[in-house]
Amino acid sequence: MSVSVSDENAEQEPAAQQVSAFLERRREQIAQRWADAALFRTVFTVSRDEAVEAGRAVAAALAAVAAAGRPDDIRASGFEAVRDQLGRMAASRARTGADADRIADEVAALREPVTDLLRAEFPDPYAPEAQECVVALTVLMGTLRLVVMETAVSASEELIARQREQLHEVATPVIKLWESTVAVPLIGTLDSARSQVVMESLLNAIVAERARYAILDITGVPTVDSLVAQHLMKTVAAARLMGAECIVSGIRPAIAQTIVHLGIDLGTVLTRGSLADALAYALSRQGVGIGPVAAAEAALTADAGAR
Amino acid sequence: MTGAAGTGPAGGHGFTVPVLQLGDVLLVTLQGELHDGMAEQLQQDVTDRISHTRVTGVVIDISGVEIVDSFLGRVLAEIAAGADLLAARTVLAGMRPAVAITLVELGLTLPGLRTALDVERAMELLGAASRQGEGSP
Amino acid sequence: MMRAARHAAPATLPIGSDADLAWVRQQVRQTAAELGFGLVQQTKLVTAASELARNTLVHGGGGQVRIIPLDSGPSRGLRLSFVDTGPGIRDLEQAMTDGYTSGGGLGLGMSGSKRLVHEFEVDTRPGEGTTVTVTAWATAVPPSRPGS
Lengths: 307, 137, 148
Description:
The complex is a heterotrimer of chains A (about 300), B (about 140) and C (about 150).
Chain A: H1 8-25, H2 27-35, H3 38-43, H4 48-67, H5 80-95, H6 100-108, H7 111-120, H8 128-170, E1 175-178, E2 181-187, H9 192-209, E3 213-220, H10 226-241, E4 245-249, H11 253-261, E5 270-272, H12 275-285, H13 291-305
Parallel strand pairs in A: 2-3, 3-4, 4-5
Antiparallel strand pairs in A: 1-2
Chain B: E1 19-22, E2 25-31, H1 36-53, E3 57-64, H2 70-85, E4 89-93, H3 97-106, E5 114-116, H4 119-125
Parallel strand pairs in B: 2-3, 3-4, 4-5
Antiparallel strand pairs in B: 1-2
Chain C: E1 11-15, H1 18-34, H2 39-58, E2 63-70, E3 77-84, H3 92-95, H4 109-116, E4 119-125, E5 129-137
Antiparallel strand pairs in C: 1-2, 2-3, 3-5, 4-5
């Protein structure tokens, strides 16, 4: 096809169309060659067929983008079909330790086999028409590289956010210790986001277990500053609004010192030295005795409870 | 004047807040959207009922309430304070976790108010539940 | 990026009576739920809306609220703008203090709602009125899988 317009952009159009037609026509060969390229080979380790299938999808997407005349547009709708797949591939490479540069190089390496096939389409591989098509293909493959990188970045951001949330949930198990008694052993730093999760899980557990007593064990919390103390007091207050009594246990001597030193007022928060002491207290309040500790607690609470 | 099995009248949509007398306990069940006017009317009704019936306890069941703001919080605290003056103890029962979290964040911890997980526990707390089922299972 | 069009469109509701407050609470909850706010986040935002709408009614002599869903970027949010043409707030710092009240409440309306949202902005002019704008964002990533 010959075009009699001298405008550069207009000339790119037919080249892009030719590239699109070529990608459609040679899709199978391209996919076969890509399946042996580092990117596909390392992602689809189990089955080569899968790699070929993925390659076909990418080639089809590129053909659609070229057909739409938008080889340099990373937002081209043709990419939508393979965005998820590319994201998974990049994420899979990242998991096996490839950094962003390496992934970018591997995507760039997909260009050569396709360029070879494209040149072979022309009687004179270095004729101006062939060169134009090679340029169009190069632009297209460069755009693919950007799409992969962009997809990889947003996929990893999402992954990090999701993992953070899961970590919060995993790190705050609520345990039923006895009838009507639940406990959360807190381990690690208690920041605002985490304390929200703790509060929600504890309150939901109070409903689910019909708990009268909730124990917050902070043995595993490295430091208690005024912010952490505030989070603890909020949790205690919320549990109380739901009719449960909250006990904070596991205040190590060093932390007790800090609390006093910082002048933090834990107010009416009920505290016990260890989780065992807290449980003994909760049990004795429910009329369950467990040995000498409980007996002592029972005596204490009987005194305190005499109104 | 409210009758024996009566309910408190409410403003607006003809909704009423059911106030039931169970032995010597008044059970007030709040549900759904409560207009400010209804809440204030309720406060009046409950106080009237206590003084006429000489109940010794009031249970306010808010398990059906989706939000408690500072206005409703104040009304609840005042109902309890008013009941106290009339020698009746008030228990707030069934607050939902999301409501509790929000109230604490709002800065409203209702320190003077007795609370219970649900109506059954509230009755137990008031010592009005039938004595046979005492203690936990 | 291609994103399905949302049905949550901006809306303006009047605040002139008790019944209006209830309607505002319902609409805010529904919009927040559509935007994917969790139950606790919904409850916080609706509570803040209730406080601020009551301020508009009681102190501002009535007004309106504009409910603006924000879902253009990667995170979704809801912005509420409470507008009145009342007397304005003379001492804003005092009004933002816990326990300060001019209307017989608990004095937690302003300071308390601020703690329930992510962004809080007051624009007040004596004699002209007050606009309080709050924004809350839904958690960036929805819970991984329901039930897990």
